[in-house]
Write a structure and sequence with these properties.
Layout (H helix, E strand, L loop, with lengths): L9 H4 L6 H12 L7 E4 L9 H16 L3 E6 L9 H14 L7 E3 L4 H13 L3 E4 L3 H7 L17 H13 L8 E4 L14 E5 L13 E3 L1 H11 L4 E5 L6 H11 L5 E5 L11 H9 L14 H7 L3 H11 L10 H15 L1 E3 L1 E2 L2 E6 L7 E7 L9 E7 L1 E5 L19 E4 L4 E9 L5 E9 L16 E2 L1 E3 L4 E8 L26 E9 L11 E4 L3 E5 L8 E8 L3 H8 L1
Parallel strand pairs: 1-2, 2-3, 8-9, 10-23, 12-18, 16-19, 21-25
Antiparallel strand pairs: 4-5, 5-6, 6-7, 11-22, 12-15, 13-14, 15-20, 16-17, 17-18, 21-22, 23-24, 24-25
The chain binds one RNA strand through helix 6, strand 6, helix 8, helix 13 and strand 19.
RNA sequence: UGGGGAGUGGCCAAGCGGUAAGGCAACGGCCUUUGGAGCCGAAGAUCGUAGGUUCGAAUCCUACCUCCCCAGCCA
């Protein structure tokens, strides 16, 4: 071990630390297997929108390329036209770009290689390594055997090369119906690895493809397309999730049979988050059954949902870097993600005052009709953000939670007879509580100390609390959407018998406040603008905003010590 | 019960034979015109279990236990 001296380690400077993948890459670099190249790719299937789990993969792949001075490709794995759509392709491109991964001019599609893939399949047939099978799907399953019993050869397995060539060409020409026959690799029906029991390479699909239209009637399976696509693009390290581990022998078999350049497949554990579902199938269901407003519903773990929610690419990258990458299945607590968006926004978001649940305050000794502009700091963490003016008047709104008629010990906000500070405003003292016929508090009468303008007391006296507020006359009315976790259970994929993840949806995941008040400085802010509503949390302007009514989404609340005290009781 | 993987504090995760990094969470205190942020501090791990090798094991060996993945003409 080198002692003392701090030799700068490039790996420690980038966000990603060391992990089992960098270790493998280092070994390859040491042995010269890829001549020191590092070339990764992100290979999404365009059958849905990208989610935070994909962000882990994107940041990993792009991050490694960056870290080693290599290249990164974006390649669509578009081999199944029955599930894939152009809409998804476009959304995915937007999301990957937004996350900050740069594929430069290397945007590819597996469908770009359909011609080459077909030729290679012909080569396999000529080598006696593939055959056309007329067993139907059920029969193929039966012949495959089970986990503990070997399979048996298809009766069509020993067709002649000529016959196979002819049949395969006719498959391509569209002469057969879907399901009538398939092209299979001839490997080993007794292999303990089921994926090696003569896997299907091509199936017939009379379906229009988003990119190749009706040109093809046969489409390659993942196992036949993926490795060769990696090979064509000269990818060095082909990263995928754990469930493909058992496919690696097949990945390598294909490449070896073709005698072409062979990348290294490496598998890592996919991301799992508490109170979240990251299965594309289930996300599609949430959208199609209307449990959420769409793919970009701010409650969705999709990239577009997180974006609309107010998350930043920087926060997502910090998160994926920090959780690391390994081969152990694990579940990250959602709090970890929330930590990183708070951390980012704390430094980047301007502060603003907003009252969500208004309680009217009348300052009896403040002149009627008077409005003063008071200076407020935009961001205490960033002096360059400057200041703004906030209007103060005789009638204000404060948060209902900030007043208690009969406060417990640790509550040190406003109460009868108590003096508190209005942020950037004045010290006020509550003199009277006004209630309606049902005993609900509807208004507070207070007095203010003109000497405390801006929030400082010349005599040095102190107050325990500082409250946010808004001028009744000058405040903007806005809609505020408060989001909570979409599921009420930590692992929504593990539900009681007879239930599905739908049954465990959190009924309170969205709370809409139709009439919240925000200081006027936010007027006209464009969609996506992020703020910290002081003492409440981080919010961003939703695209639903109009000139008449702004709409804000709560990205995440501030850490709330008072709420914690209340919880402890 | 075939094959392939994984088990390190509440949640992640370093570590690669020399005596357990870091992050999140939780806890105590300081500070504060956000009960935010920040700062300081303390606590928390017999490294799945049991054996073995070694002067020394989370790291090597053996056995066992638990969990995950594979029987789509999905990816």
């Amino acid at each position: 071990m080198a002692s003392g001296e701090s030799t700068p380690n490039p790996e420690e400077e980038s966000g990603l630390g060391r992990n089992f993948i960098t270790q493998i890459i280092d070994e390859h670099n040491a042995s010269g297997r890829f001549d020191g190249r590092v070339h990764t790719r992100f290979p999404p299937e365009p059958n849905g929108y990208l989610h935070i789990g994909h962000a882990k993969s994107i940041n990993l792949n792009f991050g490694l390329a960056e870290q080693y001075g290599g290249k990164f490709n974006l390649r669509f794995d578009d081999t199944n036209p029955t599930k894939e759509k152009q809409e998804y392709i476009e959304a995915i491109i937007e999301d990957v770009r937004w996350l900050g991964a740069d594929w430069e001019d290397r945007l590819f599609y597996a469908s770009d290689y359909f011609g080459q893939l077909y030729e290679w399949a012909v080569r396999l047939i000529k080598q006696g390594d593939a055959y056309v099978d007329h067993l139907n799907a059920d029969e193929i399953r039966e012949y495959r055997g089970t986990l503990t019993e070997p399979g048996k050869d298809s009766p069509y397995r020993d067709r002649s090369v000529e016959e196979n060539l002819d049949l395969f060409e006719r498959m391509k020409a569209g002469e057969f119906d879907e399901g009538e026959c398939v092209l299979r690799a001839a490997i080993d029906m007794a292999s303990p690895n089921i994926n090696m029991r003569d896997p299907v390479l091509y199936r017939i699909l009379h379906e229009a493809h988003p990119r190749t239209g009706t040109e093809w009637h046969i489409y390659p399976m993942y196992d036949w397309a993926h490795g060769q696509s990696d090979s064509i693009e000269e990818v060095t390290h082909s990263l995928c999730t754990l469930e493909f581990e058992a496919h690696r022998p097949l990945y390598e078999w294909c490449l070896e049979k073709l005698g072409i350049y062979q990348p290294q497949q490496i598998e890592f554990a996919r991301l799992a988050l508490t109170y979240t579902i990251l299965s594309k199938r289930k996300l599609i269901q949430l959208v199609e059954e209307g449990h959420v407003s769409g793919w970009d519903d701010p409650r969705m773990p999709t990239i577009s949902g997180l974006r609309r929610r107010g998350y930043t690419p920087e926060a997502i990258r910090a998160f994926t870097d920090q959780i690391g990458v390994a081969k152990a299945n694990s579940m990250i607590e959602i709090e970890q993600l929330e930590h990183f968006i708070r951390q980012d926004l704390n430094y980047s978001a301007n502060r603003v005052m907003s009252v969500l649940n208004p309680l009217k305050v009348v300052i009896e000794n403040y002149p009627e009709g008077q409005v003063e502009q008071l200076e407020a700091v935009n961001n205490p963490e960033d002096e360059s953000a400057g200041t703004r003016m906030v209007p103060f008047s005789r009638e204000l709104y404060i948060e209902q939670d900030d007043f208690m008629e009969d406060p417990p010990k640790k509550f040190y906000r406003l109460a009868p007879g108590r003096e508190v500070r209005l942020r950037y405003g004045y010290f006020i003292t509550c003199t009277d509580v006004i209630k309606d016929a049902d005993g609900n508090i509807v208004e507070l009468r207070c007095t203010y100390d003109p000497e405390t303008r801006g929030g400082h007391a010349p005599d040095g006296r102190r107050v325990k609390a500082t409250l946010h507020w808004v001028s009744v006359e000058k405040a903007l009315q806005a809609e505020v959407r408060l989001y909570d976790r979409l599921f009420s259970q930590e692992d929504p994929s593990k539900v009681a018998n007879g239930q599905t993840f739908i049954d465990v949806l959190n009924p309170d995941s969205l709370q809409v406040i139709e009439r919240a008040y925000v200081e006027p400085s936010v007027q006209g802010a464009e969609a996506g603008t992020r703020y910290q509503f002081e003492r409440l949390g981080y919010f961003c302007v939703d695209p639903d905003s109009t000139d008449e009514k702004m709409v804000f989404n709560r990205t995440v609340g501030l850490r709330d010590t008072w709420a914690k005290i209340q919880k402890q009781k």
